Amino acid sequence: MKKLIIFTFMLAIVAGSFNASAKVRHKDIVGDWKYEVPTAPYGFEKGTLSFSEKDGKLAGMLILIDGSKMQLEGVILEKVTLSFSVYIEGGYVTVTSTVDGESLSGMVKSPVGDMKLTAKKEKKA
After folding, report:
1. Residue 7: what pLDDT?
2. Who contacts 75 (Cβ-Cβ below 8 Å, separation ≥6)?
3. Which of 30, 35, 92, 95 is the most exposed place for a label (fewest CB within 10 A)?
């Protein structure tokens, strides 16, 4: 009986460590990410997603190549899924992506259609 209790306890610890490793934390997201959406309209196909943490919540900014900035809305991180929205030129755009270390990959849903997004986190100097 004692061995069964110890085995169950150890199994719970191992299962918990797998679950913990499948989670991304806010601090893993904070920083600048260079993104590419090759099929996006001209001027929106490359830029920077800049994430910060304020009052325990993620916030962000979309920075285009020309320097234009747009506030991200509803930045949510759930396990390894990062999602947010942004209002661009009269249309609402939503992004759902998967975080894999220093990379993001996902889909952009916009009034002009669905597009693939990739991003790489910039290294701190």
Report:
1. 40
2. 51, 57, 58, 59, 60, 82, 83, 84
3. 92
- 97: β partners: 82, 106
Region of 100 (left: φ > 0; alpha: ψ -120 to 50; beta: rest) is beta
Amino acid at 54: K
CATH number, domain 24-121 = 2.40.128.120
Q: What stretches in the chain show pLDDT beneath 70?
A: 1-22, 125
Domain residue limits, the chain? 24-121
For residues 77 and 57, what is the distance between their CA atoms, to the nearest angstrom?
9
pLDDT the model gives residue 89: 85
